Amino acid sequence: MALPFDDTQGARDPRALAILAKTIYRELRSSGYTTRDVVSLAGELVGMVASDVRSKSQQG
After folding, report:
1. Which of 11, 15, 28, 55 could form a disulfide with 33 if both were Cys (CB 3.0 to 4.6 A apart)?
2. 47-58: buried (b, 16+ CB within 10 Å) or exposed (e) per residue?
3. Cβ proximity of 28 and 37 under 8 Å
4. CA 29 → CA 10, 14, 42, 46, 47, distances in Å?
5. What's residue 13's pLDDT?
6. pLDDT score, position 2
7. Are 29 and 38 in contact (CB under 8 A)?
């Protein structure tokens, strides 16, 4: 599954992230990942974002 990412900063369609999340979820589930796997992935992503936020808040 290839995801197109760009470097555009600014306003995005408010539905874009919901659509992306639904697409990723469906792709994972159709590839055999369990609900537990998806929840684990979500936890890992939240942890990475939290770490990034902490790093940026300590810098500035």
Report:
1. 28
2. eeeeeeeeeeee
3. yes
4. 31, 24, 14, 20, 22
5. 85
6. 56
7. yes
Residue 27 belongs to a domain: no
In a domain, 2, yes or no: no
Which pair of structure tokens corresponds to residue 60?
A: 């500035």
Q: For the chain, what is the domain count?
A: 1
pTM of the model: 0.70
The pLDDT, as a whole number, for residue 1 is 52
54 conformational bin, left if phi > 0, alpha if psi -120 to 50, beta if neither: alpha
Residue 53: which domain range?
34-60
Tell me: the pLDDT tens digits for 10-53?
677 879 999 999 999 999 999 999 999 999 999 999 999 999 99
